[in-house]
Amino acid sequence: MKDMGNKYQPSEARLIALENIEKGLSDIPFPKQLVIETTSRCNMKCLHCSHKEMKRPRAHMAESLFKRIVEEIALESPDCEIWPTFYGEALLLGDTLWKWLKYAEEVGCNNIVLNSNGSLLGRKGVIDQVLSSPLKRFILSLDGFTKETFEKIRVGGKRDKIYAAVEELLRRKEELGLMYPVIQCQFSVMEENETEVEQFKEFWMARKAEIKIRQKLTWTSTGTIKARELNLGNEFRIPCPWGVNSTAIHQDGNLVACPVDYEGRFIAGNVEKLSIKEIWQTSHRAGLRERHLRHDWENVPEVCKGCPDWQVVGAKYVSEEDKQALDWSRPFWHHDQ
Known about the structure:
The chain is α/β, with parallel strands linked by helices. The chain is 35% helix and 14% strand. The chain has helices at 12-23, 63-76, 95-107, 126-131, 147-153, 159-176, 197-205, 241-245, 276-281, 283-293, 302-305, 323-329, 332-336; strands spanning 33-36, 81-83, 112-116, 135-141, 182-189, 210-215, 246-249, 254-256, 267-270, 316-318. Helix 2 runs parallel beside helix 3 (95-107).
């Protein structure tokens, strides 16, 4: 085990938790989580996000491609966790987003998750669309409690406006007596906000949100984003739980390494030409998953070699939600554990 003297080294308990996560990893026939980039456009330039540095095109996905993807998911794995957003803000799609999510439900997709920066939540009708949608959970990435901290991190977002919209969403959900979607307020811990975690939790717990606390990602360290806490090397490394269990499809149909391969440095194939299942069981398996599961760190894809984000897996949740609702509000790894 690593020396625990450095305050940024993970605890013994965290290392054991990572080892236990590895025990549950295996080669699976279809991804447990599939991120669909309905748009690669975003309206913020957050401090801890590499979107502002992204070199590939910013565009919306074609409707025909989205439909093809969800039709296959419904056929192959209806409970697969679908995230219809990736490196962009899905609410920028407007009414189109909700039409697409309804279609996914109609063809048989059971587990749809959406994350948002909340900047457009206060627009007329959006809260109603969220609450009448087939979403099992809706994640609001907030990452700061005070106005100063929030707006320093979430550049382009107005703290008070976004907080007010999320509060109204929670009020309306309670008023309607809805189980779903479970509303999660997410806080990515970093140097700029680490003193505000408890304030954040207390504020949103009082409003009956579920709290999701996670570490800051580096987004594969492809750009300039770094995280001081993610400092384990190959001497203690487990197969990436995201790379083994998950994948993402960019707006142009490219199926990439995992949900944090935002630049598409590893492209296993394109779902316009082959099915998700074909790509997952051939080039993604041989080029990435088999190498991770063998601890063949010298031959994993280049994007994986310098990526420390496998250490982030396993967010902490705080909730008073109904147990039945929580069965659908937690990610696949939580159910596996």
